[in-house]
Backbone:
């Protein structure tokens, strides 16, 4: 019950903010304009979704940052921290609200891609041979796991430093840090596939799908198997580790300046 | 836990040193019964540190704190079930109404039934005189209104331990009176600890009090009795400002006030300090300054006649 209330209050608070809908609008417009309003294969939709995910990660860390650090930044934390709530309810409710808000914002990606088709008079050829719902696969498999990971990173940085602005820094540090780590690991162990696995956005895996025609590539994507599946599962697992670490380190306490 | 007559907050040997070397609390021992209790001391005396410890936000380096059978330091969850805390300094979310934020806090405090919660929220908003502005965003509230909102949050769930840290500091006189009335209405079943640097807050409200300075408890007393104890030992003399250093060398000056361009010095002395002095009616402020100046209480150089150890 307290978990639900913490989730509900946070979600409603940010859903009423203009900022949230500005992020949504920007993603929607960019998604729509990226290919002139058309997508002709699942593969291009996937590529665009990855790009839009990166744009989101750099644009919207404030959602997770404010869910994690607003109490301290508004100095309301002495009132909240002395309430009889469990750390799991507090952090869990806030994180889940941030993730759901981000999932909502990212929904602008498939909607922006498909809007020209979905509107009356839309031409069927712009989305290729698949039903529109297939394009939400890229949202589910690419956008959501990436959003889960980056929301966790942003939330962790903001919650543990108690400053929302560190969610931006966390995004950049994490992305750059992982690129370097992946490059080093792949070179040292001579495992070129490893650096694609260690790419949190799955962009490199898309780039290495060997099939030559878009239809064949789509078939690979629809299967959602092999290194793509491994990549997604790996990063969701890493996100969970980051959240567990945040839970362990976080304290309802006064911190001397 | 049921509220029993013996409800008592026991602070035993609590010390705290900050990383920067500030010795915020030195071996503080206090026994605080149910009812209003005043913790009086100048700014920087360690009051807020002690209040935060009682409110489970900070831990002492050593010592114990217990409320009834609950260990405040180790059983934070249990204490929070029954705690109300009004911090010296706090903010609120700007973009939400008082009513909806108070409702949110009511859930966090465990008032889960919707109807019960509506009743509690309405009663507290009326009590704190915020009912008419309950739909206004908190970002537009004045300092006094925000303070009253904090009181409403602190009173949610009828706490048996209410920690109120410097509540009157930012209030105008009318708000201050209203706030003090609110506090005095609280039942005798709760321990209400009020920290302040304003002597009148204590003399108007608290049947028991302690004076703290530089992290040390200087005096534990009942305000009325403490004033009685120094009655007849406080003297007043009006001098010019440049005569003050000489007066301070010869007499135990406990406080000075400027009045119409002249300095009014108050001196503590068992017998008349001289023909230029007139006896005055002692008040709690004299008790406070006597304790700070070491004329009474633990700071007194001679073995304390208060009989406490």
Residues:
């Amino acid at each position: 019950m307290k978990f639900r209330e913490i989730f509900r209050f946070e979600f409603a608070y940010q859903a009423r903010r203009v900022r949230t809908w500005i992020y949504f609008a920007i993603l929607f417009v960019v998604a729509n304009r990226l290919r002139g309003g058309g997508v002709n294969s699942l593969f291009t939709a996937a590529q665009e979704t990855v790009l839009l995910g990166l744009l989101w990660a750099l644009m919207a860390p404030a959602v997770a940052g404010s869910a994690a650090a607003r109490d301290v930044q508004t100095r309301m934390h002495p009132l909240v921290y002395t309430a009889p709530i469990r750390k799991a309810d507090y952090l869990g409710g806030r994180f889940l609200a941030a993730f759901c808000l981000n999932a909502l914002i990212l929904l602008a990606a498939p909607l922006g891609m498909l809007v020209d088709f979905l509107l009356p008079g839309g031409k069927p050829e712009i989305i290729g041979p698949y039903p529109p719902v297939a394009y939400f696969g890229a949202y589910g498999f690419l956008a959501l796991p990436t959003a889960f990971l980056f929301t966790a990173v942003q939330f962790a940085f903001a919650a543990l430093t108690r400053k929302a602005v560190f969610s931006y820094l966390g995004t950049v540090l994490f992305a750059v840090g992982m690129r370097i780590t992946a490059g080093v690991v792949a070179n040292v162990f001579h495992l070129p596939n490893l650096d694609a696995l260690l790419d949190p956005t799955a962009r490199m895996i898309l780039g290495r799908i060997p099939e030559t025609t878009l239809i064949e590539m789509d078939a690979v994507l629809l299967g959602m198997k092999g290194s793509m599946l491994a990549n997604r599962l790996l990063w969701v697992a890493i996100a969970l580790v980051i959240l567990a670490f945040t839970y362990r380190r976080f304290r309802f306490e006064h911190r001397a300046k | 836990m049921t509220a029993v007559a013996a409800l008592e907050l026991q602070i035993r040997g609590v010390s705290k040193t900050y990383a920067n070397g500030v010795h915020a609390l030195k071996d503080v021992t206090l026994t605080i019964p149910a009812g209003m209790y005043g913790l009086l001391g100048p700014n920087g005396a360690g009051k807020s540190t002690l209040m935060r410890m009682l409110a489970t936000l900070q831990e002492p380096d050593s010592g114990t704190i217990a409320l009834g059978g609950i260990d405040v330091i180790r059983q934070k969850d249990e204490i929070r079930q029954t705690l109300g805390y009004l911090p010296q300094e706090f903010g609120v979310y700007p973009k939400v109404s008082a009513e909806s934020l108070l409702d949110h806090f009511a859930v966090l405090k465990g008032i889960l039934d919707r109807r019960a919660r509506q009743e509690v929220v309405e009663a507290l908003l009326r009590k704190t005189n915020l009912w008419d502005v309950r739909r206004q965003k908190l970002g537009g509230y004045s300092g006094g209104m925000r303070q009253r909102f904090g009181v409403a949050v602190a009173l949610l769930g009828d706490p048996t331990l209410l920690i109120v840290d410097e509540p009157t500091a930012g209030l105008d006189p009318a708000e201050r009176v209203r706030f003090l009335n609110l506090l005095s209405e609280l039942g005798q079943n709760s321990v209400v600890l009020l920290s302040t640097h304003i002597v009148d807050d204590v003399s108007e409200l608290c049947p028991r009090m302690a004076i703290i300075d530089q992290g040390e408890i200087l005096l534990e007393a009942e305000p009325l009795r403490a004033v009685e104890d120094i009655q007849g030992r406080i003297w007043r003399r009006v001098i010019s400002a440049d005569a003050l250093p000489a007066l301070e060398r010869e007499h135990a000056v406990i406080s000075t006030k400027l009045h119409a361009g002249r300095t009014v010095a108050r001196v503590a002395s068992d017998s008349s300090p001289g023909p230029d002095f007139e006896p005055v009616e002692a008040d709690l402020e004299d008790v406070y300054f006597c304790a700070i100046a070491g004329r009474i209480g633990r700071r007194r150089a001679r073995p304390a006649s208060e009989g406490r150890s």
